[in-house]
Structures are given as structure tokens and as C-alpha cells.
Amino acid sequence: MMALPVEGEKIQIHSYKHNGNIHRVWQETMVLKATKNIIIGANEKTLVTESDGRTWLTREPSICYFHAEHWFNIICMLRDDGVYYYCNISSPFVFDNNCLKYIDYDLDVKVFPDMSHALLDEDEYEQHRLEMNYPEVIDKILQRNVKTLVSWIEQRRGPFAQDFIESWTNRYILLSEIQANKE
């Protein structure tokens, strides 16, 4: 049984590649909800470290959605002109040593505020599929999950539902205020 973080706890997010190498680390994300299947978090201006050591700060508040059964995760970026979604095709998450961990499988779906979307990084996926020798079963799972993700977008399911962003942003604001008052 995987131990889970608690609401309000700050965790790291670790993204790996199929070969086991670290890809990217988000230093701090506040947990808004954690069950055995779903972790929803939020961060803003968090430090991100790339595999080559480069670092950068996220620019806007984001609500992050991770699932233990689906092979994708969804980052909802709250910008002045609307919500943009960056969806990573990835392994389901595991939570280990205060870190949410997943394997990034290169393919991404970017979703714009009008819900139009584009599949990105197909060349990178093909290159890594060959270099890291992704098994055929993984390739099939990933392709199937791209279709599932697109259907979620089109049906406005999960993080794409109209009330998702508002309710989780409000939760993040509330928890941030509670923590600020404790400090």
C-alpha cells in the first residue's frame, strides 16, 4: 500500500525517462487532494530543475492532476487570457519518499482556452522510443491513452470540466492562507 500525502502538505514532483534517468524536478507543490487514484496539487513560482542542471521558475499558478490508472497527467496553467493545459503522456504516478513520481513518455497535448488542442513532440517520442527501446505494449498503451485524453478534452471531463479550475483554485487559495497564518 502506497503512503499518501495529506492535504496542505508540500511535495516534490519527479519526472523520469523510460531508461530511469531523472528528467525534471518541481521543488514544491501543495497537495490539494490525495486518494489512492488521484493527486491534485498546486504550485506557483516553483523552482524546476532540468536533468542537465538548468533551473527555472514556473510563471503562473498551476493546478496539477495526476492519476494512478491513466497514462497521462494534466497541468492547468492559470494565465490572464484563460486556462492553458499541458498534458504529459506518462506512466501512472507513484508516491514515494514525499515525491510524486512518473515516467514522461515525450508526447504532449497542449490545450488552449477555447479547448482546441494539438499533439506535440511526436518526433521526440519516436526518437526516444527507438533509443530506449520502448516495448510494443507500452507504445500501444500510450497511443490508447492519447485517445482517452482527447476524449476527456472533447467531453470536458476531469480537469477540463468547467468547475474544476474554479473549485481547486479556491481550495489552493484557502490552504495557502491557512498556512500563511500558521507561519
From TrEMBL:
Chain residues that bind Mg(2+) 2: D106, D108, D121, E124
Pfam family, any one: DUF402
Cofactor(s) demanded: Mg(2+)
Residues noted as binding Mg(2+) 1 in the record, renumbered to the chain: N88, D104, D108
EC number: 3.6.1.15, 3.6.1.6
UniProt similarity note: Belongs to the Ntdp family.
Role of this protein: Has nucleoside phosphatase activity towards nucleoside triphosphates and nucleoside diphosphates.
Family annotation (InterPro entries): DUF402, FomD-like_sf, Ntdp-like, SA1684
Start and end residues of each DUF402 domain: 19-157
Catalytic activity: a ribonucleoside 5'-diphosphate + H2O = a ribonucleoside 5'-phosphate + phosphate + H(+); a ribonucleoside 5'-triphosphate + H2O = a ribonucleoside 5'-diphosphate + phosphate + H(+)
Top-tier EC class: hydrolase
Entry keyword set: Hydrolase, Magnesium, Metal-binding
High-level lineage: Bacteria, Bacillati, Bacillota, Bacilli, Bacillales
Presence of the UniProt keyword Metal-binding in the record: yes
Name of the protein described by the UniProt record: Nucleoside triphosphate/diphosphate phosphatase
Organism whose genome encodes this protein: Solibacillus isronensis B3W22
SUPFAM superfamilies in UniProt: FomD-like
